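Record type: monomer structure entry
Structure origin: computed from sequence
Chain ID: A
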Amino acid sequence: MSLTLSLDYQYKTSIEKLWSALTDSSKLAKWVANIHTGQSMENDFKPVVGYRFQFRTQPTEYWNGIIEGEVLIVDEPNRLSYTWESGEKHTVTWTLQKLEDGKVNLHLEQTGISNAPALAGAKYGWGKWCGELEKMLEQ
């Protein structure tokens, strides 16, 4: 059985600025950080279907510090999807939607999660990262 994480965040920003934060390698490194150390996760992400990328951080005794991925969908500026593999292989899909109040809704769906503790960990991690994303968008 596979579990799915589904989260929504609203940001007071333009859809183009939010898209850039999700797809620009240098911007990703600013808000996607190691949950335990706070160290940014360097990456070689490119929003190109079929492109294989990595996020890298300091390894620990429990983890090699590498997240592997492959871009599956690029529908700028509305939808982005990629695999996310660090032990388990998940699919992460972002859907962006302009709201009438000048905000943008960012919907996250992560599929392929194997158990409740992994689901809770993913929810915690994305919650922390999306808070960092909000800070970066305010700059």
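Annotation 1: The helical segments are 15-23, 25-31, 116-138.
Annotation 2: The chain has a mean pLDDT of 93.
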